[in-house]
Amino acid sequence: MRAVIHLTRAGVSLVLASLPAAGADDDSASGLPVVLHWGAALPPDEDVASLLALHTPGVPFSALDRPRLRGVVGETVSGFTGTPGLSGHRVPGSVAPRLRSWTWTSYDDDAGDGVRLVSRDDEAGWEVGVDLRLTVEGLVEMRTTVTNTGAGELVLGQVRNALPVAARATELLDLTGRWTRERAPQRGPWRVGSHLREARHGRTGHDATLLLAAGTPGFGFGHGEVWATHVAWSGDHAAYAERTVAGECLLGGGELLAEGEVVLAPGASYASPALVGSYAADGLDGVSTRLHGWVRRTRPLTRPRPVLVNTWEATYFDHDLAGLTALADAAAAVGAERFVLDDGWFRGRRDDRAGLGDWTVDRDVWPQGLHPLIEHVHRAGLDFGLWVEPEMVNVDSDLVREHPGWVLRGRPSALPDEWRHQQVLDLRHPGAYAHVRDALVALLDEYPIAFLKWDHNRDLVDVGAAVHEQTAAFYALLDELHLAHPDVEIESCASGGGRIDLGVLARTDRVWTSDTIDAVERQRIQRWTSLLVPLERLGAHVGGPVAHTTGRRHTVAFRAATALLGHLGIEWDVRTLEPAQRDELAGWVRLHQQLRPLLASGRLVRGDHPDPAVVTTGVVAPDRSEAWYVVAMVDSTLTEGPAPITLPGLDPARRYVVRDATPPGEQATGFIGTSWLGDAAGHTASGAALGALGVRMPVLLPETARVLHVRA
Ligand code: GLA
User: Fold this and answer.
1) Which long-range contacts (CB under 8 A, 24 or more apart) does 329-334 make?
2) Which parts of the chain sit beneath pLDDT 50?
3) Would you give the end-to-end CA distance of the chain in angstroms?
4) Cα 521 from Cα 176, distance rounded (Å)
5) Which of 179, 203, 309, 312 to mutate to test the pocket of ligand 1 (most atoms within 8 A of CB)?
6) Rounded to whole angstroms, how far apart are CA atoms 411 and 296?
7) Residue 682 CB coordination number (10 Å)
8) Cα within 13 Å of Cα(405), Cβ side
């Protein structure tokens, strides 16, 4: 039997066809499934069998005597010479799986349409299932499941999913980074061979690429054809872009398994995390729109994002009831709606050397528990959030003194080297898992906690082959807590942006984007993190006048404008504010509250400006009746005033009023000379003109920003 399938959704098509079955023993089976096309939508009545004929390569000299097409699984035994889709062995008698005959089952559900492909090789003892879904957002999700159908154990090597992209995508973009400098872009030509990004941190990593994108030359946020993939997993993982000598162009990835990390007993299975693929004909903004839609659908937010005050950079470990209630009052005075008590509240935690693991309130500091603080916070009109780091322990903790065997380690003779003076709790141990789950549930049962900031402040080093199970246990813990307390919102933090991926975003409500809240750094970090993460889930805080991580000094206006189009927070000791500063900050909070419904539903657009000093971030209402843009100068401009700022995403046929909406304050002007920015009523232009011609700004000082409001 020959099978074909053409899935099409939201302007994207995914087309598969089978090659003739070789040696099939039943009629329902077909040969190797090939992804013929992932990209722009094709007509629904496209003749796929004919497309397959048009895309079957010739047989060159010095090659197999049959046309060679890469199947959904890159099989070395079928002559594919790129990165193998599957590897593994058994002792003794290892035979590589050769998957010749497949069954196809198509399905559709609320999430989209898909096909499940299954094949087995009884000689090798492998059954392989490949699931390909085209979601309602037009994303491809690809997962592979391996089952050991043989007699002995199967030691799994790697399981890689990969999707083909068009050969005209000759440029690559990916992200790297480090603590306080997450998501730094790098781009270059896509040459023959592999561009491989491996992450071995035991968590996603500050350097995780989030997306690996390939596009037509010069692609940007608003132009060019782009294909991008993401590995939806919070542990070790690999992402690669590969061009083979046979002409295949592939974006792939999967979990990065350590030697012997997954050993399948007879009958046991391994399911890969999803490789998620996003295609857009109109640049990276289009790629992000689909991904943001996925996050919003998978983990819907039920209420507007409360503006929060976080205690960390305001007080660090200096906790006392009088000081913190005063902070809560000052937070209420600027309009904050949530008070988050960061690190330092639990038993023995006077600094970062002790206490992790002992998740009960420190009675020396809080004789009546957290009740008096929370009651005060509630009276001030805010809800309450709490910092936790459930997967970690300090050796100096009652937990480790009582259960030294619960520390994750790769060798009996020594503990792993410490990192921020801490070790990792071995969540594979049922007692350890139950202990931390019960401790968290007890906290949530006792206190009215609306929000947990869930941290993870070290890499997993010298822990043996534990990352796979540790990551699965982390997900299980989040899932159990969600069942027990469905209304509690959770933030994914890992020393800032060290755990940001679709695996965790399916289970949490926002990410702590970075430990730096320096506005210049944040302009860049948020711009690139938003490739994957919708703006309303990016924790973005207004820090103090001098950034703690860089020493740079910025105005309230620049700090607040930089946080405005995120999940706004304040991480500044607001007890110390002068009245004028307080009024200015309160103005920014009100502006955020005004625009946040649009922020949570709108489409993100990021301007492609020729001058790297200019960073434009916009959000456009779904019906394009309204939009907000923040124009930030991260450096001095090359020209006297910046070249005109185009405002993308508007309806070309409609007329809009553009006005400066920057709240007044301290040094809010930030520009030299005169400008239309001072014209309170604004000016009218079509969406076409604003998208093509843009608006001219005055000479803007470095490290300043303006907010533009556009309304039909
Ligand atoms: C990590 C987080 C910070 C803060 C500290 C507390 O570094 O990223 O925001 O919560 O831990 O120890």
Assistant:
1) 329/380, 330/574, 330/575, 330/577, 330/582, 331/380, 331/382, 331/570, 331/574, 332/380, 332/381, 332/382, 333/574, 333/582, 333/586, 334/570, 334/574, 334/577, 334/582, 334/585, 334/586, 334/589
2) none
3) 56
4) 14
5) 312
6) 42
7) 18
8) 4
Q: What is the DSSP string of 611-634?
A: STTEEEEEEE-TTSSEEEEEEEES
Q: What ranges do the domains of the chain cover?
A: 82-298, 308-596, 605-711
Q: How many CA atoms lie within 13 A of 236 on its CB side?
A: 22
**Greatest CA separation for the chain:** 82
Distance CA 34, CA 164 (A): 10
**Pick from 463, 474, 69, 132: nearest CA to 275:** 132
Tokens of 236: 């070790």
Q: 698 and 671 in contact (C-beta within 8 Å)?
A: yes
**Nearest residue to 132 via CA among 274, 256, 326:** 274
Q: Using the mean position of ligand 1's atoms as its centre, give its distance from the Cα of residue 528 in Å.
A: 21
Task: With beta carbons less than 8 A apart as the criterion, state whether 687 and 654 touch.
Answer: yes
Strand, coil or helix: 392: strand
CA 348, CA 365: separation in Å to the nearest integer? 10
Nearest residue to 664 via CA among 593, 597, 583: 583
Predicted local distance difference test score (pLDDT) of residue 655: 98
Q: Compute the distance from residue 568 Cα to the ligand 1 centre, in Å.
A: 17
Residues 6+ apart with CB under 8 A from 222: 282, 283, 285, 605, 606, 607, 608, 648
What phi-psi label fits residue 10: left (phi over 0), alpha (psi between -120 and 50 degrees) or beta?
Answer: left
Q: With a 6 A CB cut-off, is 358 part of the ligand 1 pocket?
A: no
CA distance 55 to 71: 13
From the CA of 515, how far away is ligand 1's center (Å)? 7
Q: What is the residue type of 572?
A: W
Q: CA-CA distances (angstroms) from residue 687 to 191, 581, 601, 638, 649?
A: 39, 36, 20, 27, 8
The DSSP secondary structure of 531-566, one letter per residue, reads: TTS-GGGEEEEEE-SB-TTT--B--HHHHHHHHHTS
Range list of β-strands (E), 86-166: 86-89, 102-109, 112-121, 126-135, 140-148, 154-159, 161-164
Phi, psi of 563 (to 5 degrees): -90, -10
What span, in angstroms and rounded, lies between the C-alpha atoms of 538 and 303?
A: 16
| Paired sense of beta strands 33-40 and 603-606, if any | unpaired
- The pLDDT of residue 641: 87
**Ramachandran sector of residue 315 (left: φ over 0; alpha: ψ -120 to 50; beta: rest):** alpha
Quick one: how far is CA 469 from the chain centroid?
Answer: 21
CA 557 vs CA 37, 441, 563, 567, 631: distances in Å: 48, 40, 10, 17, 12
Bridge partners, 12 (sequence order): 9, 40
In the residue annotation, 651 being an active-site residue is answered as: no
Q: How far apart are CA 315 and CA 339, in angstroms?
A: 13
459 is catalytic: no
Q: Which of 121, 509, 515, 660 is catalytic?
A: 515
Q: How many angstroms separate the CA atoms of 205 and 461, rounded?
A: 13
The residue assigned the tokens 């959704």 is 9
Which tokens belong to 150?
A: 């043989």
Q: What are phi and psi of 633, to 5 degrees?
A: -105, 110
Rounded Cα gap, residues 42 and 684, in angstroms: 39
The answer to whether the beta carbons of residues 253 and 212 sit under 8 Å apart is: yes
CATH of region 82-298: 2.70.98.60
Q: Which residue is closest in CA terms to ligand 1's atom 6?
A: 343
pLDDT at 390: 98
CATH superfamily of 308-596: Aldolase class I (3.20.20.70)
**Region of residue 402 (phi > 0: left; psi between -120 and 50: alpha; otherwise: beta):** alpha
CATH class, range 605-711: mainly beta
Residue nearest atom 7 in ligand 1 by C-alpha distance: 495
- Residue 75 near residue 88, CB atoms below 8 Å: no
Query: Is any atom of ligand 1 closer than 6 Å to the C-beta of 126?
Result: no
